[in-house]
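Hello,

Our lab assistant flagged a job as stuck in the queue for most of the afternoon. It eventually completed. Since we weren't sure the result was trustworthy after the delay, we are filing this so someone can double-check. Below is the sequence as submitted and the structure that was eventually returned. Let us know if re-running is recommended.
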Amino acid sequence: MKAMPSRRPITTAIRGLRAGDASARCASYIIRLMVPLHHPGVSGGLFNPYGPVTRTRVDGGRMRGVRQDGRVRIAVVSLLLAASAALTAFSVLAYDLFKPGRDTVPLVLCTAGLWLLFALAVLLLRGVRGRAVVVLVLAGSVGIGAAAMVGPPNTSTDSARYAWDGIVSTAGISPYAYTPADDRLDALRPDWLFPAPELTESGKRECVGERIQTAQKTESGDLLCSALNRTGVPTIYPPAAEIYFAGVRALTGPNAEYWPLQLTGLLLSVGTTGMLLVGMRRRGIDQRFAALWAWCPLVATEAITNSHVDMLGVVFTLAAVFLVTGRRYWSGGFVLGAAIATKLIPVLAAPAMLRRQGWKVTVGAVATFLILYVPYVLSTGIGVLGYLPGYLSEEGYEDGTRFALISLIAPGGSAVIVAAVLLAVIAVLVIWKTDPDQPWLGQLVMIGSALLILSPRYSWYALLLLPFIALSGRWEWLLVPMALTLRLLVPSIPLTRVAIATAIVVIVVMSIHRARPGIAQRVLRPGWSKVPEPGDQTVG
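-- returned structure --
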């Protein structure tokens, strides 16, 4: 007997299977196609890749499933990403912090617009499902990142120092041995980093250019025009960073300007996006959270346009986390050591990885760190410390003036003690409470708290925080890089204090909201929750 026709395609397919007629051959396909449309909330199973399903009344009040075409939502997200890429390119070409008598208001407004587009795109991504998520996240990472390469660095001159260290290293000279102003390095100077002085109408020789600073050579005292900052002091960067700089310059030569490091930053940032997507899929984390890294304006600005070496530290740190959670403790320790030997700050990610087999991670990290330093110590001796002690003093970390909030209650040198105690307590809590299989929440708390306590005036330090915001889905911590970005663009201590205090309040409120009910039990019980609650498994 033939199956009776039905207005419901799934019912038709099932009857076809039972009857054994010709329709049975396509019944399985029909069921797979239609189940998501009629049952969008089936746990762990099929879903509509184009968006949610609504119900409407037809045929005398009967309820019937109607698909909201998610292609519209995908199109809107794509347009927002295109707008973000366009605005990123515009901001790089139109605004920088090096123009004489500059007005930072347009740059601040443009940056605010980028963060707004980012927020809207992430919110709309919640309604996208399936492969479209991966495609959008990767496309946005590539598109916005490529747009960030259209011009030279616009808020930092650090990449000029990276290029110079690489040029010196490829010449077989330790970058820790001489300052950039040393006369003995004259033969290595490319014109784009050290342009010749120009004669003015009065016959005086002057350094001309937005990024060009005036200095003097150490021995002869001759005028030196340089795109580098701090030409009178040795480099500050650890050995893994110096190897990276030398590798880039070995491939491109000394005359390529800013684009080699920008291209490398793009490759590293997109690679991090891919690493997050794969790691999230394997660990059952919503892949839409990867957009919190891939589309973030801070990544485009600081990892690509300004090419900060922190990006390499992020790659090593994230790889170490995935290795350790995969029970590969020695390998994770080796990679963590490389991360710390890139920019020191990745050491903040270590406490959350010490709960299980922590001694292996520690020994591996320390061994790698020391091995990377050995060649430079043999050639330069104690000079490998570079300008680090002077940098800490210059930034106000010795006398406590750099701590935006702590300095209100503990002025002067006492702020250093208070900050050290707070960081030590947080580190102990992170080690005690972190789930060793999913340590990213502990790393988020450790790194984010350190940034809030130390309140550096360099927003690129927050690059290390972003992957752990993505892995944990705790979007409220994005207020930390936003506060540091504001501090960089508008160097006002009162405004910085308001921004950091606001971030702390929002983070605390959201943390309490996520933890209820049973917050007391969560605080007293070792091990933070492994994954966000079901209600938290959406971006936004």
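-- support follow-up --
The delay was a queue issue, not a problem with the job. The result is valid. The beta strands are 53-58, 62-67, 198-199, 205-206, 213-216, 223-226. The chain has a mean pLDDT of 83.
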